[in-house]
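Regression check, 2-acetamido-2-deoxy-beta-D-glucopyranose case 635:
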Amino acid sequence: MSEDHVTFVERNRRTEQEEEEEENKKPRLTRWQRFYKSRITLLSIIAIIFAITVPVLVFYFVLTRPDRSVIPHTCAISSEFRIPCGDGNLTETECRNERFCCFDFTDEYCYHFLPSKYGYYPVDDASYYRNNRTHDVFMNNANPYLRLAVQYVNENKVKIILHYSNEDSTTIEENANYIVDRYEDTLGFDIYRKDPEILLLTTGLGPLMVSENYLEWSFYMGNTLFGLDELLFSGNETYSKVIYKNRIDHTTVPAFMGYTNGSYHGIAFDIAGPVEFLVLPSRLVSVRVLSSEQISFTFVTGPTPKDVQQQLYEFDLPPRWMLQPHICRNGTGDINSITEEYLSFIANNSDVEYATDCLHQNLHYLMYTMNDTEREVMDTTLDILRQNSKFIMTLYPQVPNENETEIYITAEELGLLYTSNDSQTTFVHSGVHLGKEVAFLDYAGDTGYIDTWFETMLNWLNLTQLDIDGFSLRDNWPDDEAFEMEWAEQLPYLNGTFMSHMSHTIAWNATSSLQQPHFRLHNNYANGQVEMLRRNFEELAFLTTSSYTTTTNGAYAQVQNMNTSWTNLRRVIKTSLTHSLFSNPFIFIPVCGSTSGYKPENQDILCSRWYISQYAVQHQDTSLKTKTFSVHVGT
Ligand SMILES: *[C@@H]1O[C@H](CO)[C@@H](O)[C@H](O)[C@H]1NC(C)=O
Ligand SMILES: *[C@@H]1O[C@H](CO)[C@@H](O)[C@H](O)[C@H]1NC(C)=O
Ligand SMILES: *[C@@H]1O[C@H](CO)[C@@H](O)[C@H](O)[C@H]1NC(C)=O
Ligand SMILES: *[C@@H]1O[C@H](CO)[C@@H](O)[C@H](O)[C@H]1NC(C)=O
Ligand SMILES: *[C@@H]1O[C@H](CO)[C@@H](O)[C@H](O)[C@H]1NC(C)=O
Ligand SMILES: *[C@@H]1O[C@H](CO)[C@@H](O)[C@H](O)[C@H]1NC(C)=O
Ligand SMILES: *[C@@H]1O[C@H](CO)[C@@H](O)[C@H](O)[C@H]1NC(C)=O
Ligand SMILES: *[C@@H]1O[C@H](CO)[C@@H](O)[C@H](O)[C@H]1NC(C)=O
Ligand SMILES: *[C@@H]1O[C@H](CO)[C@@H](O)[C@H](O)[C@H]1NC(C)=O
Ligand SMILES: *[C@@H]1O[C@H](CO)[C@@H](O)[C@H](O)[C@H]1NC(C)=O
Ligand SMILES: *[C@@H]1O[C@H](CO)[C@@H](O)[C@H](O)[C@H]1NC(C)=O
Ligand SMILES: *[C@@H]1O[C@H](CO)[C@@H](O)[C@H](O)[C@H]1NC(C)=O
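Current build output:
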C-alpha cells in the first residue's frame, strides 16, 4: 500500500501501532525502575548543570533496583514528586540551613531531599528506630524513637502501625498474599503482592518526622489513584484535603485505592486527629497529622474493587425503605405550629409517597420543654404520622442545659460531658447549638455509665411510647455554632485551612472523659456515638451525617447542608462512588425538600434521579458485572 492510499485515520492508527511496537521493543523495566524513570525529565535538564554527578544517578535509577543504603540525597527531583518542606514557603536560608531541605530559586520553593533527611534509623536489630534529626521542619523537638508493628489480619489484609509505645506486636503468617519488605537503613517499607511479585506501595520517598503535635509521612501506590472525595486523581495539580469533620465536610473518608498491572489494592487510615492529605501530581501522597498519635492503617490486596471494599469493611445493604425518600422539617416552633405545618403538608401532597418522616428536626429539643398538653398533641400527631410512614427521630449529640433537666444532671454526674478549666476550676464545657446553650456528651467514655445515661434519657423522653423506627443523627461531627478556632502555638502546622475545619465544632482543647484534649479523638466522634446507640437500641435504624468507618454494620449516611440542585447531584454522585468503597454505606439520602422548600413541580425529577443514583451506587456490584435493580420513589 503506497502512502497515497492511506487515509488520515489509517495513518494515525498506524502511528499509534508503530509507537506501541516501538514501546514493546524497549527493554522491560520493573515498576521501581519505571517509577524512577518518570522523574528523569527534570533530571536530564539538571544533568546539564550538574554534568558529573547527576548522569550517574540517572543511570543508576533506571537500570537497577535502588539499593537504598547507597543512594545519596538528591535535590534533582522533578516537580510533580516534590514534597513541600513545611508548607514550601521558606526563605533560602531557612530552607537549607535550618530545615535541611532543597531550595529551588526559580520558584522560591522549599522541598525535601530524596530520600528525605528526616527519618529514623534502626537500632537493636530494628526492634526500634532512632530519629536522625532533633527537630521537625517547624523546629519543634522531635520524638527520639519510633517502632513499627506489622500485624497480620488475614491473607489479604495487614495492619501497619508506626507508634512509640513499648510493645512490639509484629505478627506475620506464611499464607499471606502480600510481602512487607522493611528497609535496612531506615524506618520504611515496601508492600508487594506475592504472586506475581509486584510492588504495590512504597514509603521511603518522603520524610518521616514526629514531634509533639505533628506527624508527617508519605506513601506512593502508583500513578492511578482513587480516594478521598475525588474519585480519580487527575494528576495535573496538587490536591489538598483536610479531614477534621465539621459543617464544611463531615463525610470524607481517609482511604485510597490504587491500580497496578490489572489489579486494585486499598489503604484505609485510622487517624482521629486533624489530618491533611496532599496528593502531588505524581500521586505521591504526603500525610500530615496535627497530633502525634500513632499512624495506623490497613492495607488490603484486592485484586478487584469489590474485594478491596469487602476486605476493608464488611456491611450489609440497608433495608430497602431506607433508600426511599425521607422528609424532615427545619426551623423552630412550638408543637402546635409544627403539627399544623405537618397536617397541611400531607394534605397538599397526598400523592407524594415517602418512607420516613421526622415530624420536626428539632422535636428532641422541644420535648425538653413540653408540658403535658403539648405532649398529648405530639403523641396524637405521631399516631397520624405512623399511619403514613415510618418515624425517624432526630437525635443530636449535644445535651441542652435547659433548666438543668434530669438527663443533663445525670450526664454531668456520670462524668460523660466534656469539660474545660481555668486556672482554678474545672467546669462543664459549653457551646451553642440551634441557638441553645449545650454541653457535649463524650461517647468514648465509660460504656457502663453511657448505658445508664441512655436509660435515663429513655425514661425521661418516654421513648418506648414514642415507638420510633430509628434515629437520624444530625450535626454529629459535633456541631458548635459558637466556636471559632484561633491560632494555637502548640499546633505548628495550623494554617487557614485547618483553622476553618477546626471551627464550628467542639473546641479542640475541651477535655474528654478520657482526660484527653478533644482534637486527638475528633474524627472518631461519630463512630463512638453510633456504637453506643446501637448497643442500647439494637432494633433501630440509624442515619448519620458524619461518615462512620468501622468494620461492623452501623449507620447509613445522609446528606446534610446540601440543597437539591443539579450541581450538587453531580457532586454527590462522585463522592458517594468513592465513599461507598471505603465506609458505611453512603446512600447519601437527601432530605428532598422541607415543607418550606418543597416544590414538587421543580424537585420531583431531580429528587427521583438523586434517589435512583444513590440506590444504584449501593447496588452496583463493584466486580463490574451488570445488575438490574428497581427503585420506587415518589411520583
Ligand atoms: C510566604 O511567607 C511569607 C512570610 O512568612 C508571607 O508573607 C507570604 O504571604 C507567604 N506566601 C504564601 C503564598 O503563603
Ligand atoms: C541517620 O543516622 C544514622 C546514624 O548517624 C546514619 O547511619 C544514617 O545513614 C542516617 N540516615 C539518614 C537517612 O540520614
Ligand atoms: C485537571 O484536570 C481536571 C480533569 O481532567 C480538570 O477538571 C481540571 O480543571 C484540571 N485542573 C487544572 C489546574 O488544569
Ligand atoms: C503484569 O502482569 C503480567 C501478567 O500477569 C505479567 O506478565 C507482568 O510481568 C506483570 N508486570 C509486572 C511489572 O510485574
Ligand atoms: C435550617 O435551619 C437552620 C437554622 O435554624 C438554617 O441555618 C438552615 O439554613 C435551614 N436549612 C434549610 C434547608 O432551610
Ligand atoms: C398548602 O397549600 C396552601 C395553598 O396552596 C399553602 O398556602 C400552604 O402553605 C401549603 N402548605 C404547605 C405546608 O406547603
Ligand atoms: C426555664 O427557666 C425559665 C426561667 O427561669 C422559665 O421561664 C422557663 O419556663 C423554664 N422552662 C422550663 C421548661 O421549665
Ligand atoms: C402548655 O403550654 C401551652 C403553650 O404552648 C400553654 O398554652 C398551655 O397553657 C400549657 N398548659 C399547661 C397545662 O401548662
Ligand atoms: C487546665 O488545666 C491544665 C492542667 O490540669 C493546665 O495545664 C491548663 O493550663 C489549665 N488551663 C487553663 C486555661 O488554665
Ligand atoms: C409513658 O407513656 C405511657 C404510655 O402512654 C404512659 O402510660 C406513661 O405514663 C408515660 N410515662 C411517663 C413518665 O410519661
Ligand atoms: C482553648 O483554646 C482557646 C483558643 O483556641 C483558648 O482561648 C482557651 O483558653 C483554651 N482553653 C483551655 C481550657 O485551655
Ligand atoms: C495550608 O497549607 C496547605 C498545604 O501546604 C496549602 O495547600 C493550603 O493552601 C494552605 N492554606 C492556607 C489558607 O494557607
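Comparison notes: Residues 1-66, 620-635 have pLDDT under 50 and may be disordered. The pocket of 2-acetamido-2-deoxy-beta-D-glucopyranose (ligand 5) is lined by residues 330-331, 594, 597 (CB under 6 Å). No diff flagged against the previous build.
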